[in-house]
Every structure is written in structure tokens, then in C-alpha cells.
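Intended use. Records like the one below are meant for learning the mapping from a protein sequence to its folded structure. Do not use them to infer anything beyond what is encoded.
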Amino acid sequence: MKHEMPQLKYAKNALEPKMSQETLEYHYGKHLQAYVDNLNRLTENTEFETMPLEDIVRKAEGPVFNNAAQTWNHTFFFNQLTPEHSEMPESFKDALCRDFGSVEIFKEKFTKAAAALFGSGWVWLVKDKDNKLDIISEPNAGNPMRKGLTPIMTIDVWEHAYYIDYRNKRADFINAVLELTDWNRAGELYAAR
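Structure written out for the chain above:
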């Protein structure tokens, strides 16, 4: 199976000024493209060649895992963003309040985890098999599906995600991502069984 670049649901300039067209041209257009191309090259004539992307993420190791997970993680991240203001569904708000105390406390903890992750990686809001929400940090290409968890939302804290727009101000980038997050989508992912 040949893996393809996901199509963005918005124009490359639609997230400005919080995320510039230049950032999307590099982050989506060059970094993600390289992961997709590498994945296709690395899986050719292997057991992973016809495997769905999620299965590769769950089963592969080494360079195949790194490129598969980065392809999946980036696709998930870009699909999470929206230029439109998005309200949280009440059921999702209730779940955040149940598991974190309030929506504000969740955002504080998520922001703190993303700011504190040393080096490169991803911070995820996940649900477990009992629908309990948690925040986990994964270095490098880490993906929570390998732990049996369901991703609800994420933030990419590799420097390439924010350096064009925010230089070394990771916290400003984190705040921008929270403002660009499609909370309806997060609520739908939480509600899905």
C-alpha cells in the first residue's frame, strides 16, 4: 500500500497569524512529505508494504516505526487544527472536568506537559479502555496507540513545528495550538467507541 500525503482541510494561510503559511509549507509540505516518502521506501518489499498505517505504528520498530509514527502523528495533528472557532461539546467538557477538575486545569496541565517535554516529541490527550482521559508525553515519534490508548488530541513539540513563527517561545506556540484546536473533533473522538 502506497502511503499518500493527507489533504489539509484548510488553506495553508488559513491559520494565520497563529500559524503561518510558511510554517505549513515546511512542517506539512516538507517534513511530513519526507516521512511519507521514507515510509514508502522503507516498507517496499517488506511485511509492512500492504499493512494499514495504524498497524505499522503498532508493530514496527526502528526507522519503519519512526517514519510511520511521524506520518500518523502529523496527519492527526494537522487534522486537529481549524481556522474556525470551535466550542467544546458538553459531554467532552464533562469528561475533562471529571478527570482533571475543570477545562482550565486540563489546559494548564496539557500546556505544562508540552512545555516541559525535553527535546523533541509529542504530548497527547488520550483515553483508556474505560474512557478515562489522561495526558501523556512521548519522546521523538512516540504514539499512544502502542500502549493501547486512544489519541484524542496532540501537540507536536519538535522545534520544526514552531521555530519559524515562534523561534524559541514554545509556550506561545502551545497557546496558539490550543486556540486552533477543533474541539468538536476532539469531542467526537472521545465519544467514539
